[in-house]
Amino acid sequence: MSKSLFSEFNEVSAKQWKQKIQFDLQGANYNDALVWKSNQGIDVKPFYHADDFKTCPEPSNTEASKWKISQSIYVADVEKSNLNAIDAIERGAENINFIIPSENFALESLLKNIDIKHVSLNIQPLFLSETFVEKILDYSEKAQITVNTDIIGNLAKTGNFFKNLNDDFIQFNPIIKSTKTINVNLSLYQNAGATMVQQIAYGLAHTNEYLNHFENQNKSVLQDLKMIFNVSVGTNYFFEIAKLRALRKLWRTLAAEYQAPLNCYIYTTPTKRNKTLYDYNTNMLRTTTECMSAILGGSNIICNLPYDVIYHKTNAFAERIARNQLLILKHESYFNAVDNPSDGSYYIEKLTEQLAEKALSLFKDIENQGGFLKQLKNGTIQRKIKESALKEQEQFNKKEKVLVGTNSFINPDDRMKKELELFPFVKVNPRKTLIEPIIEKRLAEPLEQKRLKNEN
Asked: Distances from the Cα of 14 to the Cαs of 6, 11, 19, 47, 50, in angstroms?
């Protein structure tokens, strides 16, 4: 076929489209009627066009077809956790994320009968131990094992270092030298109510503290660095796709300054912030679109949340449903068939560009003010996140932000008091902290507490 498809049609410029829309509005103001402002400070237009770009956007090269399905397992009982992992792998999991509360267990028992040559593993210790990491590295020659160690993330979440700044970095240095992997947890910022611009900027500034440290202490670590971002995504479908793309884009910019590898790895989970206690089946709808955003945004590994994660203990049924959502997306909806599926979408490309620009500006401001750790210690980061969270909470309270079954389309006969196996709200635990911790909180909590109190 020698002729271009649709060559008989004349090109239409963005200006011509806007003129046509303005005519059809019959006197209504274009901006008032059709342009809406997001919480990210971005004006979203009714259409996007090639004219919006000075140059053609570069391909993202994320190989979206190679994403893996992950299963997260909290290791309270080693034997049960081992059996859960084996069952999850048999049922389609390609990655296991072990959350380890204590190092007092036999690693051999946890990994027994797991085909570690073909299934990748994330080890997420809730403590800091160079000795423990050394045990794990004994398996690294015959397995794809990543150790998740983030001392600044622990500080931000708990308000304290594992021990103190100096001792934490003394143990952190050999761990990173051995693993050649840095993990940064952006999920905390999302679940606490930060905007997407803040999530990206804080994640980069968080990362830059590590890069600065090794630039000064052991520059060779950066040459073979594997950078992993742990990210949560919400239901703002196209924005979440763009958020992941913008994060990857800005990492390449930052990595180039340190002569570190330009590629990064993104481990994604749905957010807990919009999950609800009442009408809990809607959580499955939310996590499905969130996982779709994660795939289209170029995540390497995706771990879905069970629909009842906020109020039920771990159970096989909910985990299987969550895993099956990913299996359906991968093998029945063909979300493993195309690389870089978002490339060339004018809307997503423009959102990516705008989020990246705004996040880079905020990142530069943080660095000019002394860096991420300094702003954590003086409370600036916490205050900014609380301001964003409060704005979003007000939108929820006014029903400008809708969670079906909770603040709109409510089933008054829904009863949940007898279903609670876990406490689904923020726990108050007074203790002494070095800094104010960043607190994760769901939007629906205040309303749910009132409904539970009024249940018969």
From this structure: 18, 10, 9, 9, 8
> Residue 142 carries which side chain, given as an amino acid letter?
K
Residue type, 186: L
Radius of gyration of the chain (CA): 23
pLDDT value at residue 260:
95
Q: What is the mean pLDDT of residues 86-109?
A: 93
H-only helix segments in 334-379: 346-368, 372-377
Report residue 56 as tokens: 């053609």
End-to-end CA distance of the chain: 71
Surface-to-core class of residue 287, CB atoms within 10 Å of its CB (0-12 exposed, 13-18 middle, 19+ buried): buried
Q: Which string of b and e fits 159-193 if b means at least 16 CB within 10 Å?
A: bbbbeeeeebbebbbebbebbebbbbbbbbbbbbb
Residue-wise pLDDT tens digits, 149-169: 999 999 999 999 999 999 999
pTM: 0.95
Which residues, other chains included, contact 191 with Cβ-Cβ below 8 Å and sequence gap of 6+? 232, 271, 272, 273, 440, 441
Buried b (16+ CB within 10 A) or exposed e, 226-249: ebbbbbbbbbbebbbbbbbbbbbb
SS3 at position 199: helix
Cβ distance 219 to 210 under 8 Å? Answer: no
Nearest alpha carbon to residue 342 among 249, 270, 255: 249
Residue 5 has pLDDT above 90, yes or no: no
Q: Up-side HSE of residue 125: CA atoms within 13 Å toward CB?
A: 23
pLDDT at position 218 = 82
Measured from the Cβ of residue 43, the count of other Cβ atoms closer than 10 Å reads 10
Compute the distance between CA of residue 3 and CA of residue 77 in angstroms, rounded to an integer: 66
How far apart CA 441 and CA 426 sit, in angstroms, is 6
Q: How open is the CA angle 141-145-148, to the nearest 5 degrees?
A: 140
pLDDT band for position 127 (50/70/90)?
A: very high
Cα 242 from Cα 244, distance rounded (Å) = 6
User: Are 265 and 95 contacting, i.e. CB atoms less than 8 angstroms apart?
Assistant: no
> Of 74, 349, 40, which Cα lies nearest the Cα of 201?
40
Q: Give bridge partners of residue 365 from the DSSP assignment.
A: none
The residue count of the chain comes to: 456
The yes-or-no verdict on residue 266 having pLDDT over 50 is yes
Sheet strands (E) in 264-360: 265-270, 301-303
